[in-house]
Amino acid sequence: MPGFNIVKKIEPEETFRVSSVKNAFDLRVEQVKEKFEGSIDIEDKKWNIGLIVGGSGSGKTTIAKEVFGEKYITSYEYNAPSVIDDMPKNKSVKEVIKQFTSVGFASPPCWLKPYHVLSNGEKMRADLARALLEEKDIAVFDEFTSVVDRDVAKTGSYAVSKAVRKSDKKFIAVACHKDIIDWLEPDWIYDTDQKRFFFMKKQKDQKGQQLNLTYTELITLLKKKYGNYLKNIII
Fold it and tell me: Per DSSP, what are the bridge partners of residue 53?
């Protein structure tokens, strides 16, 4: 994938308040712009999950939109009385339910509710399920885990990681929190804070054994800490 060189020029309307701020802080038009330059080299590479991550204002969304275009997901429209009826019509009930449970949205009563009454965590999982059900080779999901608490973010990331790899789809999360990296286990990362792109190194012998060993221990520890919460997470 070619590099990107994005110049985002901000030209506010010349109102009284805008002029006052520009004069007070000696701002010139050429100063009011953002520039994002780099590359995300994933052509001819084998991968399933990518992560564009960095702080607010570091260009995550701008870069995702520029590089991935129509694959970028802004939001979905939900109009049906039951969220299950808002899923793609070309998918069977069995396929929809399988995808719901794979991302941790495993509460049948919630499937029958309209989207707007769901909690933030449930909305995130419904959106993720819909992204994976859509007929797109790559789904770019913005604001990934940004509106849920960090425990939900981590366990949700783990569930999504497993679901994406089972489906053999390509999924790119755009996020501002780096605490999900160990749980999402992306194949590559573009860090907008450091302006750095890299593939994650896989240490099959040591890390693989460690993950297999700690998975059982991890679930045991999470059950102790969160109890019945884990019933809604299907890995």
Answer: 175, 191
